[in-house]
Amino acid sequence: MSNPIANLCMYDWPETSASIDRLWELIAANLNEAGIDAPVSLFRGDGIGDTWTDPNLIIGQTCGWPYINRLRGKAVPFARFTYDLPNCPAGDYYSVYIGQSEGDSKFLKDRQTISSAGKIAVNGDDSQSGFRVYREITIDAPADALPKEILLVTGSHRNSVKAVAEGKANIAAIDGIAFELSKQHDKHLTDNVTVIGHSNPVPGLPLITSLDNADKVPLLYKAVDNAVKNLNLEDKNTLFINGMVAAHDSDYEILA
């Protein structure tokens, strides 16, 4: 493969990027040892979504909803990290619902009450944890059930926490790992929001590879698994990663 591509973009914050790079260095070394060409550095910047269907993709990380909505049949899921997320099964994650006070939990009752929430901060309409998750409350696709005028699209979970903390939105659903990162790096914001609930756990963000690399899945899994095991404790703690489990297409059917 002449131009192999890789990304581990979903929790790539300025505060975590060095740890992610060290994780990738271990993965890449394992891949090279297995005879698989790996890029020296991860792809970052605009066009991350395009890499998920690129035939040169060796390893990428995507969200469950983009996978089920537009990547199914175009990429192969093979693993998901296990994160240090309280009360969560290995390989799964959940959303943390936040508000400005405990009383805002009333908005999580049903479609009618959540539609009266004032402003809801969402990172984007292609996010399972920040937007699609509201389906467990509305019992419908959120895009159809939530009035567009009450949605404040922020572009990231980090910005959604900020919006609630600053009073620009009443509630938000935040990826559980992103919220743990926020508590660590944005304490001035998380101290000004209140956790008002948690969603049901669902399969975590899948590591994927291109269809052209489907035959390499066992080697890819081994390369990442060994890298996680050999990652230093400080980086594991920074990334909240403590292991990984296999991922299969059928795992994500629950999101469909």
Describe the protein's architecture and organization.
Helix 1 crosses helix 10 and helix 1 packs across helix 11. The protein starts with a strand and ends in a 10-residue tail after the last strand. It has 2 domains: 133 residues, D-Maltodextrin-Binding Protein, domain 2, CATH 3.40.190; 106 residues, Periplasmic binding protein-like II (D-Maltodextrin-Binding Protein, domain 2), CATH 3.40.190. It contains 11 helices and 12 strands. Helix content is 33%, strand content 20%. The chain is of the alpha/beta class and 256 residues long. The longest helix has 17 residues.
C-alpha-based Rg, rounded: 18 Å
Q: Which fold name is given in CATH as the topology of the largest domain? A: D-Maltodextrin-Binding Protein, domain 2
Number of strands: 12
Task: Name the quaternary structure.
Answer: single chain
Mean pLDDT: 96
Largest sheet, order of strands side by side? 1-2-11-3-12
Which architecture of the largest domain does the CATH hierarchy give at level 2? 3-Layer(aba) Sandwich
Instruction: Report how far apart the termini are.
Output: 33 Å
Helix and strand element order: EHHEHEEEHEHHEHEHHEEEHHE
The geometry reads as globular
Assign a percent range to the helix content. 25-40%
Which segments are poorly predicted (pLDDT under 50) over 5 or more consecutive residues?
none
| CATH domain class name of the largest domain | Alpha Beta
Count of discrete domains:
2
Superfamily (CATH H level) name of the largest domain: Cypl, domain I
| Number of helices, where a helix is a run of at least 4 consecutive DSSP H or I residues | 11
Structural class: alpha/beta
Strand content: 15-25%
What can be said about the biggest beta sheet? 5 strands, mixed
